[in-house]
Every structure is written in structure tokens, then in C-alpha cells.
Amino acid sequence: MSTTTKRAPGPKRAGGSRRPSGPAADEPRPGRDHRLEVLRQMLLIRRFEERCVELYSAAEIRGFVHLYIGEEAVAVGVGQALREEDAVVSTYREHGHALARGVPSDAVMAEMFGKVTGCSRGRGGSMHLFDAERRFYGGNAIVAGGLPLAAGLALADRMRGTERVTCCFFGDGAYAEGEFHETANLAALWQLPLLLVCENNLYAMGTSLAREHAQTNLAMRAASYGMPAWTVDGMDVTAVEAVARRAADSVRSGGGPHFLEARTYRFRAHSMYDPDRYRSKDEIARWKARDPLVELEQRMRAEGILDNPATERLEEDVTSEIDAAVRSAGAAPYEPVADLLRFVTSTTGSTR
């Protein structure tokens, strides 16, 4: 069993029970309004991504697009554990992270269209969403590129003495990069307020986890750096939220960096260009049977807090929001050519 130098309350650490950890038995169940909001956020991400597929097929969206369909429970669950003053650093599969963070859907959609009203003024597109006001620092196209940036943000907060958490999302492919190990080592060495969330969807592009890692228990390996490292069922938003809250609270109170391995699955190919020939249809079907949206809806129906009229209202509300975002993005202008060098070169002369 892996051990850590600091013990924090929470689920079993890596090497414990094979069942991913969930909420403790004595933990209060979230209220109806909260769970409806969680469901709405997950539904918004799913429908937003599905609309992006349609728009990409119609050539309204160009460039690379990496869909988050199937992984919504991770972004939304972790997002519930964060505060407005916290920071989020993401990957190139970040539409879900941005929407869960509160970046307006019209600003995200406009960025997909490359329009100036986008959250990155149309300069970033799908892989480079950014919103400084909401402390959402990318969208990074380089695999593992966000990890050292997150460490820098966390170090700045520690030096200022602020009780903030920097949350960094990354995939199992990034785990194999040197940036992860360098960041994990420094974060533990300097006790940075950093929450590392590995979205383990079993594939680094087209390479399966078992072909890339000799030890596939990523949480156990992360614990070797001397930080609490937990595994959670990434298809269960309630479990993700409970574990993320415990981790974030511990980080915020000076417990140093924490690592969460969310075991999840992307239902779509790596990107819109990917023929997806490296995994079987049976495997995809098995994971789709655990659709996080469907599981949450079924649980809420069984508990009597969701019925058909409420579901229809949610669908209509989300569809209306996305329709408005598409109309707004389509009508928005592109950035003027005259602004091509704006934010790239200084307009002032040399001081020497």
C-alpha cells in the first residue's frame, strides 16, 4: 500500500480498496436544487459538444476539436469543490472545464467560430480557451503544458499567503511526460496549494494505458511523491464532487498538493480527425452503458427529485442557451486585420 508523509481525511488512498472512493456514509446528501444545477451543467456540456459536432461537420467550426463527451462528471464534480478565487488550468480538451467554470457559453462558442467576441478574441479556438476574470488559465495545446503553469500560479498564491487552490486538469497521456513528474516533485517539496486532477480515460490519443504505463495505478505512483493521492469513479459526479471537496479543503487549509485520478472514458474519438480504430465497439458500448448523465438522472428519479416535466424544462433551457450562443457567434465579427499584431508586439519604442 502506498503511503504519504501527510495524512488528510478522505477516501482510501491508492492501493486500498479496488472500488473507486465515493462520499462517506456520514456525509450530508446534496440538496435538490444543487443536484439539479449539477445535472444542468453536465447537460449543457453534453449538448454544447453535440452541437459542435454538427457545426464542425458543416464547416462552421474549423481546426482541431477535441470533445469531452462522456467525461462531464469530472469537470462538473471538481468544479463544485472550487471557489471563485481559485484558479483552473486545463488541457486542449477543455470545453467542459470552461463551461463548468462559468465561462459563458456564448463566449466559448464564439471562440470556436474564431470570432472577436470569443473568450480569447477568436485567437485561440477550441484548444486555447482563456478567461482571466474567472481565473481560467487555458486551454493548452501542448500535452502536459499546463502543469508547470499551474505550479507557478500555486507558488504565487503560497508566497502571497492567500488561501487559494490551483486546480490543474490533465490526461493519462500527460502523466507520462516529464512536466508531470517535475511539477509533482516541486509541488510536494514546496507544499504548494495545488490540486492535480488526472482524467484517466485509458487512452493517450490512440495509445492505451496498458501499452504506455508499466504501472497503471496512477494514484499509487503519484503518492510516491509524498502527497495524498486518491482514485475516484469519474463516471459518478456525486463521488467526484465529494472527493474533490475533501481534497480542495485540505489543500486550502495548508495540506499541500493532492492528486485525484478520475477513472473516466471519452465516448468520442480523440479528435474530429481521429478514425478511432484502436478500441473495440464493445468496449465503447460497455462504457456508454455507464453514461454519467444517464446514471445521475436515474438516481435522481429514483429519489423522487426529478420527473419528466423537470427533464423537459432542463432540455429546453439548455437548448435555448446553446441556440442563442450559436446565433451570437454567427453574427459576431472577426478580429480586424489592423489588430493582427495587437497583444503580440509592443507599440512602444525601445527605452535604451
Give structural notes.
The structure is a single chain. This protein is an alpha/beta fold and 352 residues long. It has 13 helices and seven strands. It has helices spanning 32-57, 72-79, 95-101, 105-113, 146-160, 172-175, 178-190, 209-212, 218-223, 237-252, 281-288, 292-302, 308-331, and strands at 87-89, 166-171, 194-200, 203-204, 207-208, 229-233, 258-263. A five-stranded parallel beta sheet has the order 1-2-3-7-6, with helices on both faces. It has a two-stranded antiparallel ribbon with strand order 4-5. β4 (203-204) and β5 (207-208) form a beta hairpin. The longest helix is centred in the first third of the chain and has 26 residues, at 32-57. The termini are far apart. Residues 1-26 have low confidence and may be disordered.
